[in-house]
Structure formats: C-alpha cells, structure tokens
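Bench notes, bay 3.
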Amino acid sequence: MITTRKLSEYPRREWFQNLPDACPGCSMPIILRLLLKAMEGKVSFVSCAGCSQVVFFESKSKDYRLDYRGDSISSLWVPFGQTARCAGGLKRALVAKGDTDTQVVVWAGDGAFFDIGLGGLSAAAHRNEDIICVCIDNEAYQNTGNQASSATPNSVKTSTSHFPKVQSQQKKSMALIMAAHNIPYYASATLAYPDDFLKKVQKAKNIKGFRFLHIFSPCPTGWGYPSRLTVKLSRLAVKTRIFPLLEIEGKSHVTINCKEPNVLPVDEYIKLQGRYIHRTPQVIASLQKEVDETWDWLEWLESYKRL
C-alpha cells in the first residue's frame, strides 16, 4: 500500500545549495524541488540539452548546482534524442551490478520527448524499461528562442511558425501516445497543485516498469507574461481544462484527478499571455471547442473502466 503525505510533512532538507540561476518566474526549480522531496532516495538523472541542463546539472558555478553530497544524486548528460534509450541502458547496468535501489529518472523538455526523442521514447515504452520519464512541458524549444514544437498549442506566436508567426496545428496528445503503449503509469501534474504532484511521484516510484510524468511548466520568457503569474497560470490551465490533471494506467484505466465545479472559459487563461497575439473571438471559440472535445473524450474514457 502506498502511503502519501502532504508537502508540509516532508523533510525540510533542500537539494539546492543556493537558488538556481534560472529566469525569474521559471517553474522548473520548484518542480525539481518537489520531485526530489518525493523521491527520497538514490536518483540518477539522465538529461540532455535544455534550460535544465544549464541551470541544474552542469552549472559552472557550484553555488547553483544540485547538492551531490553523499552520492544520493548523480547525473548523466546524453545526446538530445537519446535520453530514454540511455536511461534504459543505465538502469539495466545498475541492476546487473546489484543496485536495484537507484531510480533512473529522465529529465527533459517537450522537444526531447514530443519531437526529436519520440522514437527512443516509444522504444523504451514498448520494452517497458524500468525508468521514470519526467517531461517538463513549456510547449516550445524555449532554451534556444521559443521555436515551435509539436507540444506548442494552436494559435500561439513562436519564432519559427509560418507567417504570421502563429502555430496552426493542435498540440500533440502525449497522454494518448503513452496510453497506446500500454505503459504501467502516466500522470500529468502542475506546481499549482503540489500535493497532487507529490502523490503522483510517490506512486510512480513504487511502480515497476515504464512511467511517464507530464509536468506543465509555464515559461515567462517564451510565453510573454509577468513572472509573478507562473503559479496562477498553472492553476488556470487546470481550471479551464487546458491541461487536465489525470492518471492513465494501462490502455484505458483513466482517472481525472481534478474536476473543478466552476469551470472557467479558456480566455481567462490565454488573455494573460503575450504569445496569443491573435486573440480574436474566432480563435477563442476554436480553442474552447478543442478543449471541450478533449475533456469529453477523457470523461468517456474514465467512465469506460466502469462499464
């Protein structure tokens, strides 16, 4: 039986020696802080190029890097599209040496999972490698200048979208992709609901096989909003159903973790962001329709397990 705790019940120890040198308002330091508190044990990170690599894992300044004292945490930097493949190999090597306690965690962004590393991710999921993949989803290649990825939502401005620099495709559904692989566990989370996030990390670490944690990660620089609104946007993404909090176990066992009694319209979320440069009534209506259809699909899947 998995015992869950609230954030206030966790040890006060912090794994950062100082505040990370991230952009003001960046959600990643908080996400990593919560993750490490819930993992509570030996963790080996496999990461690739991205904001996190610069800030956490390979920082030239020892003042800002993670606390590696006691060898509880280690990290391995691998090619951009090979994180899941390398993590699977690392886990197998550790087990071969008799180390079955270390959790191997892939920490990468949406570009590394949704796009360039999707093939390796699919292969690792198909083999049911005993690893935890943590996708920090800021909905673009933010480390190199807000280029569009397949996680970029429809109608937002990026530096690489076709004229007039607005994305014209819908965001790829990683939940549906992972469900199709029949993996043991997929979960989505945001820092605005820390108890929900901690519960899911605890659950994931006690499951054997391939696990995928999809973490919503607002980016003030790329999204064009004041840094003070990071947590508010994370909460609004859930309240408007832009980013549902859910768990999928296997192909069809879906649980929606948060059903707000007072659902907000999507415009409450998008109006705070400069990236929605073409925020017309037609765009708002189109996005609302997309969100409503996705939610109806999720509710049908959730009810399906009870049929």
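Next record in the batch:
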Amino acid sequence: MSGQLPERIARRRLKLKQQQRRRRRIAGLATVAVVAVIGIGWMAFGGSDESVTRDTPARQASGGTAQESPGPAAAGAQPDSSWKNSKEPVPILMYHVIGEPAGDVPYPDLYLSVADFREQVEWLDQNGYTPVTLIQVQDSWYGDGTLPPKPVVLSFDDGYLGQYLYAMPILRKKGWAGQLNLKAEGSDLSSKQAKKMVAAGWEIASHTITHPDLTVISADQVKTELVESKRMLERDLGIDIVNFCYPAGQYNEEVATAVEAAGYRGATTVDPGLARREEPFELKRLRINLGDGAVELAALLEA
C-alpha cells in the first residue's frame, strides 16, 4: 500500500487505537481476576487437558494455556437468507503463529498476539464480515453455493499450537471457523486436536509432508509431497482434503500443474491481493504480521 491514507481512514485509525487502549485496560483487569480463579480451581481439583500438555516451542510462545473457553458446539458459519451465489473475489487472510514470540525467533513477523487476533475478529464482526472456508467460497464460485454479503477466509499455515489453543475458541464463540493449512508431518498439532478443529467447522488443506520448496525438488518428489500428504491427512482425519497451500508460497507453472493433477481443487499462495475464481491454483492472500491489530486490518481490507 502506498501514498497517503484517506482522511477517513486516518480518523478511523485514531478511533480504533483509542478503543484498543480501552479494551486492553479492561482485559488486563479481567485477566488478573481470571488467573486467580483458575489458580484456585486448579489447586483444589487438579486435572489436565490433552490439548495443553505438550511443551513445544509454539506452546511456550503462545502462553501454554487456552485463553478462551471452548464455548458451545459450533461448526462454522452456515448459510441463511442473506447469503447469495457470488462469483466475486474474496479476501483470504494469512496467519501463522497466534501468540507472542518467546525470545529470539527466526521469523518474528509470523507471530500475532492473542490480543491483536481477538481485536481483528471483533472488528470483522462489527463491520459485517463473515469468515467462511475456502470450500464454501469454491462452492459458490463454481456451483450453486452461497456466500454471506462480506465473506472472508481466515487461513492458518503449518499447524502451530496457538491456532488450536487460541484461534479456534475465539472464532468458535462467533460461530466461525478457519482454514488450517496443515503439514502431514512435523506440526505442533496432534491428530486429536486437528479432529477437534474439523468438528468445529474448520477446513483442513494440505501443506505437503515436509514443507519443502517445491520449485527446487524433482518432479517425483513434488508428486510424493502432493499425493502422499493428501492421502496421509485423509486417512488420519477421516475427511476429504481438497485444497492445497504452497510451502513458503514457492510455486511455478509446473508445480501448479502438478497440484491440479494430484486432485486438488485449488491452492493458496503468499502473493498479495484478493483471491479470484479465475486463478484457482494461484489464489492470493493478505498477510497478517506481528503487531497488526484492528487498525491495520481495516486499512488492509479497505485498500
């Protein structure tokens, strides 16, 4: 984005920053009270949750315990009378680690604090957006499916624990779900956790087996990464895997052709912009970086 922001966006930035400060002060007081209650309950009753027992780096980075109650059962946004068949472009937001970086990390911009993520979700809700899965978008683009008036896809790459501990319950409280681009091997998430995300309405897309740069390995290796990752995830999770995400956004014409030949319906990139039905295997996304809150999200979508 270049040039001066319009005056109305500048005013919105100031207003949203003031709202953020107020919410954070309130949230800070509430967190102190919640932590005290949880501590008393834990000492009195003990117990553990399988979802927070593994001490991985992603768990340490994201705080280790869920900040939100799972809430009522939900299976993602469902069509109502306001949803219509649409062939229009759709924004796909790209997230990685939900949680603060723990010390020196290789790629700090891949992190987003829980507070900033929650603020973005609230902003989307207040401004009429409805997160849907990429499958729902494709059903509308290429068939008779429907979409809400302002659809957006929230995509999460790699399979970090904070996506399960924080993003899922925050979205679930709204009745929303995301798209998890999951490595078949080497993610922070167990099968049980991934299955819980599926039950909450999340779409699982393949992100290969080992996350290689597909443009520099052999054609046979590319085929293995595409076909076997799909097979492994389908066998493990008991669902159809229909979409793909290029590791680190690396792809070329040969790779995109191989993705289509492997039986995928579409593929997401890290190219900036809106996803369009005319580019099923080159779907663009909007990157969310460290420190991006509601203000930055608003400017990104309005630009």
